[in-house]
């Protein structure tokens, strides 16, 4: 039997947003399981070397009966970590687990190819990872704020703040606003959702977003500057303008540049982008601010159709997210 949280009917709702915001799913699952009276433990990847399959910060939530949510290794050490987590629920505190090629256990759990991993396992209680810290994290993400949590390896405790043997910065949930309900948007929206973004389509031109083309997606019929004012881009938000209409694009870009959005991009040729920059300069934006706009949008992969252009934009978003300061 699959022991993931959805196997017994306790899983989260279907849909791209539900399954790709890993931290959001884990927090919601922890809240539900705690309300049901279960003891819980958290496992967090704190260090990796070589071909370890997941980055530091990857998390696994384990219930007292072995049900779990999340992943620390893509499967290869999950069994050993879950067993340790179940024991930790009764003991309290935390412990650091090491798996690697020098360890006999590494061959048993699947890391013999050369990867090494350190995982901190903590009881979800006052002696390990305090439950109120999960509540604080959920509130911060809901408010579009980042929150840092420090982990102490010696006593296994987690505390809010940028101090500890390992510090995990939890960013707000990823979001993407697409301005312009065009063919490229049809391809980009599902790609972005698969990458973990909650997608909003903005287009005040009624016919563009009408019909089944964007079924299942949130569509905002306001002008982009109005929609952005309500949407309030944060440090985990991306804004991509695709309409080719200055009346839509310029207002959207101006609002995005005044925000903390990590990625701002605009579709169009180099000539049209140069003209766009001149219009934005006339609105008072300096070259430093204008340099934030990726134009033409996306990585230069020779894209020739809407799906390929969407792929290049999605790749540009990933690069911007993974290389941000």
Question: SSE layout and pairings?
Answer:
Elements lengths: L15 H5 L1 H14 L4 E10 L9 E5 L4 E3 L7 H14 L2 E6 L4 H6 L6 E8 L7 H12 L4 E5 L6 E3 L5 E5 L4 E5 L3 H12 L3 E5 L3 H4 L8 E3 L3 H8 L5 E5 L4 H12 L5 E4 L3 H13 L4 H4 L2 E2 L11 H17 L3
Parallel strand pairs: 9-10, 9-12, 10-11, 12-13, 13-14
Antiparallel strand pairs: 1-2, 1-5, 2-3, 4-5, 6-7, 6-8
Helix pairs in contact: 2-5, 6-12, 8-9
Describe this structure in words.
This protein is of the alpha/beta class and 325 residues long. The protein has 2 domains: 16-170, no CATH class; 175-322, Rossmann fold (3-Layer(aba) Sandwich), CATH 3.40.50. The chain contains 12 helices and 14 strands. It has helices at 16-20, 22-35, 78-91, 104-109, 131-142, 183-194, 206-209, 224-231, 246-257, 270-282, 287-290, 306-322; strands at residues 40-49, 59-63, 68-70, 94-99, 116-123, 147-151, 158-160, 166-170, 175-179, 198-202, 218-220, 237-241, 263-266, 293-294. It has a 6-stranded parallel sheet with strand order 11-10-9-12-13-14, sandwiched between helices. Strands 3-2-1-5-4 form a 5-stranded antiparallel sheet, sandwiched between helices. The chain has a 3-stranded antiparallel sheet with strand order 7-6-8, covered by helices on one side. Helix 9 (246-257) links the parallel strand 12 and strand 13. The longest helix is centred in the last third of the chain and has 17 residues, at 306-322. The chain is elongated, with a radius of gyration of 22 Å. Residues 33-100 form the XdhC- CoxI domain. InterPro entries: MoCofactor_Util/Proc, NAD(P)-bd_dom_sf, XdhC_CoxI, XdhC_Rossmann_dom.
